[in-house]
């Protein structure tokens, strides 16, 4: 939109309006002015005023080569090309051009230590209004580093479009298994980034690679740079904090890989693609028509490759799912076998317990009236007879000198019986 609704007077035309901030002790107010009119706005907080000012300034200063804070990289580059701009936003090229100096690259804490907040706001306002401030006179290493990070944070989307978020995160697994294949797939993905964002990412990765070569002096190695820039290079705009925390290490790893392999992933700048809207189809030159046909064929080939890539991913996922199902089935069989063994062992234990109970002898209870069992005699205990005379404990043997004849009593016959003589 090129305007906002006013309470009285319809629509305010924003292009060309200058934004003037009121002092904070006068409330969070700002004013839209031009030579003919003036409009005052009041906000409830400092953050609300900043959001309003960024949104309005994108429209108000955009036609004059400004308004890059809050605008996408593609929109900013198109606006700046009307005023002699290049393939990346001017603020990116100027900040990197200022910092790309051996003395500044060796400064400790570059991109980690904050710059002068007041100077950062001043430079932001000048860039936003379409002017080109002299960074050599107004900035220092940490201030310009903070300005560059602020611009990247204010982008409505990350440098790599969030639509490609899942594809870039998934590439980590492939890269860790096979770096060559991972780089090939990552290069294919980077070619899907829009032209202006691609060129911006290329310039940024080249510069950050140079920064980490001075890590002995500036204390910013590849890991530290990835921590600082990964949230703005690639992010998920879903607002899911759990997802961001889960993928934090993966995003950092993707940024490290792109910085380290920038020469392979970004071999040259990407030119704007031609489309049908760039041609007058009624008076088109045959050579231009041939070029258009070639471009269309390339687009179709890229789309076909994307479909093949997706199909391959689906096949891999189906294969993994089948393997998981087989693994689950095997585990279920193992669990069932173990349960059968446990049931058999429990049955054996019960049978053994019953046998033990059956084999145990039952002793009758001892009554209290029953006399106790006398204790056993010791070896020194003497034996006595009934009349009290001592008995010898040694055995005595009676020897018989002559056999004793025993007479057999005569058998008397019973009356009435006949006895043989």
Describe the structure.
This protein is mostly helical. The protein is built from 16 helices and 7 strands. The chain has helices at residues 46-61, 73-81, 90-99, 102-105, 117-128, 135-138, 141-154, 165-177, 179-190, 195-212, 215-218, 222-233, 241-246, 248-260, 262-265, 286-359, and strands at 3-5, 11-13, 18-21, 28-33, 38-43, 383-384, 390-391. Strands 3-4-5 form a 3-stranded antiparallel β-sheet, with helices on one face. The chain has a two-stranded antiparallel sheet with strand order 1-2. The radius of gyration is 51 Å and the shape is elongated. The N and C termini lie far apart (163 Å).
Topology, please?
Elements: E1 3-5, E2 11-13, E3 18-21, E4 28-33, E5 38-43, H1 46-61, H2 73-81, H3 90-99, H4 102-105, H5 117-128, H6 135-138, H7 141-154, H8 165-177, H9 179-190, H10 195-212, H11 215-218, H12 222-233, H13 241-246, H14 248-260, H15 262-265, H16 286-359, E6 383-384, E7 390-391
Antiparallel strand pairs: 1-2, 3-4, 4-5, 6-7
Characteristic terms for this protein:
3-stranded antiparallel β-sheet; about 425 residues; 7 strands; mainly alpha; 16 helices; elongated
| Unreliable residue stretches | 5-9, 274-281
In percent, how much strand structure appears in the residues?
Answer: 5-15%
Order of helices and strands: EEEEEHHHHHHHHHHHHHHHHEE
Rg from C-alpha positions? 51 Å
Number of helices in the DSSP assignment: 16
| Percentage of residues in helical conformation | 40-55%
Q: What's the β-strand tally?
A: 7
- Class derived from helix and strand content: mainly alpha
Largest sheet: 3 strands, antiparallel
Distance between the termini: 163 Å
Oligomerization state: single chain
Label the overall shape: elongated
* Average of the residue pLDDT scores: 80
As laid out across the biggest beta sheet, the strand order is 3-4-5
């Amino acid at each position: 939109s090129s305007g906002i609704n006013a309470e009285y007077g319809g629509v305010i035309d924003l292009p060309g309006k200058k934004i003037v901030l009121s002092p904070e002790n006068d409330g969070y107010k700002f004013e839209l002015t031009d030579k003919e009119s003036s409009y005052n706005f009041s906000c409830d907080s400092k953050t609300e005023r900043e959001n309003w000012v960024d949104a309005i300034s994108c429209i108000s200063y955009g036609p004059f080569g400004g308004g890059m804070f809050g605008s996408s990289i593609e929109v900013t580059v198109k606006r700046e090309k009307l005023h002699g701009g290049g393939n990346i936003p001017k603020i990116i090229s100027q900040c990197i051009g200022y910092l790309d100096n051996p003395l500044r690259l060796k400064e400790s804490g570059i991109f980690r230590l904050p710059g002068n907040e007041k100077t950062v706001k001043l430079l932001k306002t000048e860039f936003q209004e379409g002017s080109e401030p002299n960074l050599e006179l107004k900035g220092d290493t940490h201030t310009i580093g903070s300005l560059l990070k602020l611009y990247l944070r204010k982008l409505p989307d990350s440098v790599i479009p969030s639509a490609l978020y899942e594809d870039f995160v998934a590439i980590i697994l492939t890269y860790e298994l096979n770096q060559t294949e991972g780089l090939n797939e990552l290069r294919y993905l980077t070619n899907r980034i829009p032209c202006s964002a691609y060129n911006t990412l290329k310039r940024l990765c080249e510069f950050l690679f140079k920064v980490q070569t001075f890590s002995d002096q500036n204390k910013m190695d590849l890991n530290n740079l990835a921590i600082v820039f990964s949230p703005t290079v690639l992010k998920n705009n879903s607002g899911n904090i759990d997802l961001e925390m889960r993928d934090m290490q993966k995003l950092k790893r993707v940024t490290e890989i792109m910085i380290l392999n920038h020469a392979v992933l970004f071999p040259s700048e990407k030119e704007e693609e031609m489309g049908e809207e760039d041609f007058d189809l009624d008076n088109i030159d045959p050579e231009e028509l041939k070029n258009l046909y070639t471009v269309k064929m390339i687009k179709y080939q890229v789309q076909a490759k994307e479909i093949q890539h997706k199909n391959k991913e689906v096949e891999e996922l189906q294969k993994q799912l089948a393997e998981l199902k087989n693994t689950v089935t095997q585990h279920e069989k193992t669990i069932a076998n173990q349960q059968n063994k446990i049931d058999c062992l429990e049955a054996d234990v019960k049978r053994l317990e019953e046998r033990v109970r059956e084999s145990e002898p039952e002793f009758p209870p001892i009554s209290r009236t029953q006399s106790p069992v006398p204790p056993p005699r010791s070896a020194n205990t003497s034996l006595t007879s009934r009349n009290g005379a001592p008995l010898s404990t040694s055995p005595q043997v009676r020897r018989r000198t002559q056999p004793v004849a025993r007479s057999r009593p005569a058998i008397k016959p019973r009356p009435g019986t006949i006895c043989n003589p």
